[in-house]
Automatic annotation (TrEMBL):
It comes from the Eukaryota. It holds the Pfam family Thymidylate_kin. The lineage of its organism: Eukaryota, Metazoa, Chordata, Tunicata, Ascidiacea. This is dTMP kinase. Pathway: Pyrimidine metabolism; dTTP biosynthesis. Keywords: ATP-binding, Kinase, Nucleotide biosynthesis, Nucleotide-binding, Transferase. PROSITE patterns: THYMIDYLATE_KINASE. It comes from Clavelina lepadiformis.
């Protein structure tokens, strides 16, 4: 039966395995015959993405409010493209989304989670959020963080706490300290049941 695609978001702190797992998920779904595309936020190729990249690599200082709004704009840029794909029956596997937006900025001094959620309100609402749950200590022990601006264990600990406050009914918390294969299997099982169930459902609006 035809129908719309599912919007699947993968979230987690830095080094939780998101990018590897997104790739494995997409190839498994393709081999099952599903129409699926992978997306990644921030998309560093667009104009907003280049500004975000310069900020993350410390080549450009920006006010934290501006940074927050750039990340949000970087998602809104893809909104119509995402809806078009979903309506065509293409499922989307999205590496980071608005939850990262709220969890990272609200880890900064003076930003509440509530304020941080505002600019992303109304984006396509995910059908499933797979949260790769790993403590900041475990993440750090995986070969260390890189040089980017948020890659510090104390900051990541706050981000982790913030993520857990964003949990809603479409979230599945996956223990990301398991083997890569077990994490993959758990993610795939969840995705398979969601893809079958969304076909007749409308796409909602996030946080509205
Ligand atoms: P990544 O390319 O997935 O490693 O993401 C780059 C960094 O930016 C990473 O530390 C997570 C952070 N990040 C991702 N999305 C957002 C967002 O919307 N807002 C903020 N402040 N940070 C974000
Ligand atoms: Na990173
Ligand atoms: Na804060």
């Amino acid at each position: 039966m035809s129908g719309r695609g599912a919007l699947i978001v993968v979230e987690g702190i830095d080094r939780s395995g998101k990018t590897t797992q997104c790739a494995k998920l997409v190839s498994a779904l393709l081999s099952q015959g599903h129409k699926v595309e992978v997306m990644k936020f921030p998309d560093r190729t667009t104009e907003t993405g280049k500004m975000i990249d310069a900020y993350l690599q410390r080549d450009q200082t920006l006010d934290d409010h501006v940074v927050h709004l750039l990340f949000s704009a970087n998602r809104w840029e893809q909104c119509s493209n995402m809806l078009e794909n979903l309506h065509k029956g293409v499922s989307l596997i999205v590496d980071r989304y608005a939850y990262s937006g709220a969890a990272y900025t609200s880890a900064k001094q003076g930003f509440t989670l509530d304020w941080c959620k505002n600019p992303d309100k109304g984006l396509p609402d995910p059908d499933l959020v797979l949260f790769l749950n790993l403590s900041s200590k475990e993440a750090e022990s995986r070969g260390g963080y890189g040089e980017e601006i948020y890659e510090k264990v104390e900051f990541q600990k706050k981000v982790h706490n913030n993520f857990l406050q964003l949990k809603s009914k479409q979230w599945k918390v996956i223990d990301a300290s398991q083997s890569e294969e077990n994490v993959h299997r758990e993610m795939l099982n969840n995705v398979n049941s969601v893809i079958e169930n969304v076909k007749g459902q409308q796409i909602g609006k996030l946080w509205l």
